[in-house]
């Protein structure tokens, strides 16, 4: 709903009204695509004069640009259609176990640039990792500046437990990091760029990406499960990413599913990760010495090899995938029972091997979900691959612009 | 500010603005208490003329009433203070296993009336239960009408899986109900009262009550666990009750915690309910034939007897409570890891025996929650007792008024 200055109810000053209306125009363009100022006025309930003034300000701030002539009806002059600008973008950086990646996504949702850098993050000192990440961001900014583009924010995806306000990684078992100041470290290194830097959990950001641009884009109630060495969950409920009181939600990998189960790296027994983490699948599918169990080989190549064996009908591989698929469904049923999502998106290696895992997953869900018809939940495989977390970071960095267009110069 | 950037974009008309401003005044009175029209104007940023006109309309609709003279400063004329009306109320009805209860809560949050009717719901035909529930509502309406009060809506709390839109109870194991049309049945029986009737899961409504008026009132991220024959969860995340895509969220009782565990009534093994349901506690604490295991005795009396034995230091009772407390913490850790709530509220029998369960709960949470310091989560015992679900229903019925005051004649 548009707010007009006359009706404006709150203690609001004119800036609040302006901000809300600028945001309304931006969101209208995002949801409905480029259109003339007359149609923007029509869609929002703003007067034509207001719509024109708002569009002009958004154009000045580099958030909107005029494009093609648009003929809206059969009569009348065609209007110039305005759309979101491709020149303003958010940056997402992911700190993975053996890589850093950066993605730039512009306001239209287009990926402008994607880079990936192989790096043994576990072996490197955290300060060296932050140096490399900052370099990656600087390169991204330099490359895109040549094309007249500019960044409005950076959100870093890190594995493990991330403290929301500070951007400190409290604990990341995959990296063996404890209390690493990712937020402060990158803010210091990138100070001269003057855009905000935030840090968030990689699985939460991957869920945000699924919601923004994945197979289940726009679904109001979405659950995301990432399969890598560990397992994490991200939830979008009622159209909002769940963060929890301190940003620590989504820790599902250590579901205690079996008191006499395998010992987990965390020291407990029978954690879900010990049943469905990538290492377990590889151990079930192949003996030690088999190349798929060689940690020196790129993980995607090893997953691809497993996939090739399964496609060729190798019985041991298929049995391993059935076992893991069943246990994946077992743990996933907990999430589906708790959250009643409309869609469960499987990401990470679960997506890459999805068609061999789905039978076990759906069988187990059917047996364990209490609501009828899985509560309406369908299972989908992520198509974002290993870029999901970085893309989610970039989208999250852009959210601020859609909420508060005045935050951009 | 009444309308913020978060609100849905759309075509504004003057009714929308009026509605938003009426709601703003109502919420201001709820949050800050009775006050003069001048102070309402000050608090909301409305002009004095607008504030007066809005208050007059709310008074006409029976939502606000003028009361005492209020002297706001040292100078000037005192103004008449306006507050929420105690004459407009929401009704909550709970269908329990062995009782029906009704609660009327007025706009000020005061419980105007509370009734409880012993009824063996499991043994009765569903139609007879709905007859009795409708009678209970009629009595409530009649009694309060004598005092000049009127209801604006009814929300029924039912155990089990409730379909959101229709109010159909799809499945309630405690009642052995399958596809009972609670919503339609009560709407038909209460048609002449012309207020809306909704049905929701009892645990979700109890969580709503905790959020509205319980020990953790107003907490943005709240997890609620109810302990009865079964266990259910209710979540408030980011200040909103989690419903799930079809209203089926919160099914936590069948967490599969032990593949070789006890057989559950649902047919599966090792469900959390088999470890922490009330029946399990009673079986651990007493031999068959002991009065606390006599299903003919009121459940509250049996829990009180367990409490008395524990307070007296009976070793078997204390050992049973320690066992159940530990397993309660085990399952609760799943919820805390998933949702990262600021507070975990224990309800139902967990609250009544809480001080004997807490040691086990907190020990197990400390061992199993991944986030540092339990992610900031504290554990609290519900003080609402067995009225929680009905109260949550009444509060939920009132929510519509606070969102859309124009919905009331």
Could you outline the blueprint of secondary structure elements for this entry?
2 copies of one chain form a homodimer.
Chain A: H1 14-32, E1 35-36, H2 37-44, H3 48-60, E2 64-70, E3 79-84, E4 88-95, E5 99-106, E6 111-118, H4 126-146, E7 150-158, E8 161-162, E9 169-172, E10 177-180, H5 182-189, E11 197-201, H6 202-213, E12 222-227, E13 231-237, E14 240-241, H7 273-276, H8 278-285, H9 299-311, H10 315-339, E15 343-348, H11 349-352, H12 354-368, E16 378-381, H13 388-403
Helix pairs in contact in A: 1-3, 2-3, 4-5, 6-13, 8-10, 10-12
Name a few traits of the molecule.
homodimer; 409 residues; alpha/beta; 13 helices; 16 strands; 41% helix; ATPase_NBD (chains A, B)
What does this structure look like?
- Chain A has 13 helices and 16 strands.
- Chain A has 409 residues and is an alpha/beta fold.
- In chain A, the strands form 4 sheets. In chain A, strands 6-5-4-7-11 form a 5-stranded mixed sheet. The first copy, chain A, has a 5-stranded mixed sheet with strand order 14-13-12-15-16, with helices on both faces.
- In chain A, α6 packs across α13 (388-403) and α10 packs across α12 (354-368).
- Chain A is globular, with a radius of gyration of 23 Å.
- Mean pLDDT of chain A is 90; it is low at 1-12.
- Chains A and B meet through α1, β13 and α10 of A and α1, β13 and α10 of B.
- Chains A, B: InterPro entries: ATPase_NBD (IPR043129), ROK (IPR000600), Tscrpt_reg_IclR_N (IPR005471), WH-like_DNA-bd_sf (IPR036388), WH_DNA-bd_sf (IPR036390).
- Chains A, B: This is ROK family protein.
- Chains A, B: Belongs to the ROK (NagC/XylR) family.
- Chains A, B: Residues 24-65 form the HTH iclR-type domain.
């Amino acid at each position: 709903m548009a707010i007009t200055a006359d009706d404006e109810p709150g203690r609001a000053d004119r800036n609040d009204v302006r901000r809300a209306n600028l945001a309304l125009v931006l969101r209208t363009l995002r949801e409905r695509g480029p259109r003339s100022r007359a149609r923007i006025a029509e869609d929002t309930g703003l007067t034509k004069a207001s719509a024109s003034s708002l569009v002009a300000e958004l154009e000045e701030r580099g958030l909107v640009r005029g494009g093609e002539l648009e003929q809206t009806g059969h009569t009348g002059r065609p209007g110039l259609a305005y759309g979101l600008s491709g020149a303003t973008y958010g940056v997402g950086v992911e700190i993975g176990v053996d890589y850093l990646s950066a993605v730039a996504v512009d306001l239209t949702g287009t990926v402008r640039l994607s880079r990936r850098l192989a790096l043994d993050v576990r072996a490197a000192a955290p300060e060296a990792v932050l140096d490399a990440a900052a370099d990656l961001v600087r390169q991204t900014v330099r490359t895109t500046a040549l094309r007249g583009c500019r960044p409005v924010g950076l959100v870093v995806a890190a594995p493990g437990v991330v403290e929301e306000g500070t951007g400190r990684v409290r604990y990341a078992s995959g990296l063996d990091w404890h209390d690493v100041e990712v937020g402060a470290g990158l803010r210091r290194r990138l100070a001269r760029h003057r855009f905000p830097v935030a840090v968030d959990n990689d699985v939460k950001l991957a869920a945000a990406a699924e919601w923004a641009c994945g197979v289940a884009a726009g679904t109001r109630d979405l659950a995301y499960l990432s399969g890598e060495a560990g397992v994490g969950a991200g939830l979008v409920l009622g159209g909002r990413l769940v963060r929890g009181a301190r940003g620590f939600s989504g820790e599902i990998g250590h579901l205690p599913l079996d008191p006499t189960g395998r010992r987990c790296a965390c020291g407990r027994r029978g954690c879900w990760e010990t049943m469905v983490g990538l290492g377990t699948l590889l151990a079930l599918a192949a003996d030690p010495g088999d190349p798929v169990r060689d940690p020196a080989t790129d993980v995607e190549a090893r997953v691809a090899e497993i996939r090739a064996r399964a496609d060729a009908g190798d019985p041991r591989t298929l049995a391993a995938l059935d076992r893991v698929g069943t246990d994946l469904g077992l743990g996933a049923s907990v999430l589906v029972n708790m959250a009643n999502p409309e869609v469960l998106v499987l990401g990470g290696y679960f997506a890459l091997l999805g068609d061999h895992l789905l039978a076990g997953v759906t069988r187990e869900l059917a047996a364990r979900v209490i609501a009828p018809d899985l509560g309406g939940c369908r299972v989908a495989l992520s198509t974002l691959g290993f870029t999901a977390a970085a893309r989610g970071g970039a989208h999250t960095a852009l959210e601020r612009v859609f909420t508060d267009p005045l935050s951009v110069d």
